[in-house]
Design a protein that fits this description.
The structure holds 2 protein chains of 2 kinds. Chain A is an all-alpha fold. Chain A contains 3 helices and no strands. In chain A, α1 packs antiparallel against α3. The longest helix of chain A has 36 residues. In chain B, strands 1-2 form a two-stranded antiparallel ribbon. The chains are: A mainly alpha, B mainly alpha. Chains A and B meet through α3 of A and α2, α6 and α7 of B. Chain A: This is ATP synthase subunit c. Chain A: It is a multi-pass membrane protein. Chain A: Keywords: ATP synthesis, Cell membrane, CF(0), Hydrogen ion transport, Ion transport, Lipid-binding, Membrane, Transmembrane, Transmembrane helix, Transport.
Chain lengths: 75, 263
């Protein structure tokens, strides 16, 4: 296998990481909604924590994207 | 929108930094040209300025414009007080400017100026140089506030309360790592989120244009679904533009809380 093909296969594999990160982001919001429906009174005060969790989960997906871009355009 | 290069549409062309008038201005080996990036920062600043000047009135019953400005200031203020406490008010000028600059830059980069030939919007925040510097400023303020208030006691941030004696060296290293990686993750998140969204939009735009060029059958099969998807993704990008600005300001205030209150 030549190097160019290996790079593109690696970039495609990195795209799987973004899909898995989307599970994480969905999980953050799903759990928040679950908790918020049980106790709506406490929901508004926890919105900041919701977005911190979202930012953490999202960052890992974005790292997969960075890997992909580096493989295609830089490496 | 995307530039044509040899029959293929290049989605990365939109991120190219070039001098506005096409002429480089080199001083002593450094290129000091007024670039499109600088131009869009000035546009962002002008838009922000107009928005704030128009709304900063002291009417007892606010009009629409004043209500909009007060909504933004109140939003950032409540975010700071809920995260840092009463001392958070001191950081309101910085976090507010940060939030508004990123929000305006993100939204201005999404505006459809591409319909005018030869003009295309440039997203300032899609470059890691810009977001990285914003993140470094936030990190520097955290360090200055932390060491200014607590002196060397600031290092207690890296050893949480109740850590067993045996674990302190290990925990210290782990916490230090997670502290040092903050500006990196802060800048990278904004830059990658904006870059990924804009690449996606331009790839879909390429599908639309190529579908039309290939004939009416392909136009129905490819162009129509791509165009509908593009409308949806544009709306999603508007949401992402707001969320990323909010997350940047929120994380800055969370980090400032660590510096002000330790934990």
């Amino acid at each position: 296998m030549d190097a160019e093909a290996a790079k593109l296969i690696g970039a495609g594999l990195a795209a799987i990481g973004m899909g898995i990160a989307s599970l994480g982001v969905g999980n953050v919001f799903a759990k928040f909604l679950e908790g918020a429906l049980r106790n709506p009174g406490a929901a508004d005060s926890q919105q900041g924590r919701l977005f911190i969790g979202f930012a953490g989960a999202e960052l890992l997906g974005l790292l997969a994207f960075v890997t992909m871009i580096i493989l295609v355009f830089v490496a | 929108m995307a530039a044509e290069s040899g029959g293929k549409i290049d989605p990365m062309h939109q991120f190219l930094i070039e001098p506005v008038l096409g002429r480089h201005w080199v001083v002593g080996g450094y290129d000091l040209s007024f670039t499109n990036s600088a131009l869009w920062m000035v546009v962002t600043l002008a838009a922000l300025w107009i928005f704030m000047i128009g709304g900063m009135k002291r009417d007892l019953v606010p009009g629409r414009w004043q209500a909009a400005v007060e909504g933004f200031t109140g939003f950032v203020n409540s975010m700071l007080t809920s995260n840092i406490g009463p001392e958070g008010k001191r950081f309101l000028p910085y976090v507010f400017s940060l939030f508004m600059f990123i929000l305006f830059a993100n939204v201005l980069g999404l505006l459809p100026f591409g319909v005018v030939p030869g003009v295309h919007p440039f997203t300032v925040t899609s470059h890691v140089t810009v977001t990285g510097v914003l993140a470094l400023i936030s990190f520097a303020i955290v360090l200055i506030v932390g060491f200014g208030r607590h002196g060397f006691h600031f290092f207690a941030l890296f050893v949480p309360h109740g850590t067993p004696k045996l674990m302190i060296p290990l925990i210290f290293v782990v916490e230090l790592m997670s502290f040092l990686v903050r500006p990196f993750s802060l800048g990278l998140r904004l830059f990658v989120a904006m870059t990924a969204g804009h690449i996606l939009l331009k790839v879909l735009a390429a599908f639309v244009i190529n579908g039309i060029n290939m004939g009416p059958g392909y136009a129905v099969l490819i162009t129509l679904p791509s165009f509908l998807l593009m409308i949806g993704i544009t709306l999603l990008e508007l949401l992402v533009a707001a969320i990323q600005a909010y997350v940047f300001a929120l994380l800055t205030s969370v980090y400032l809380n660590d510096a002000v209150n330790l934990h």
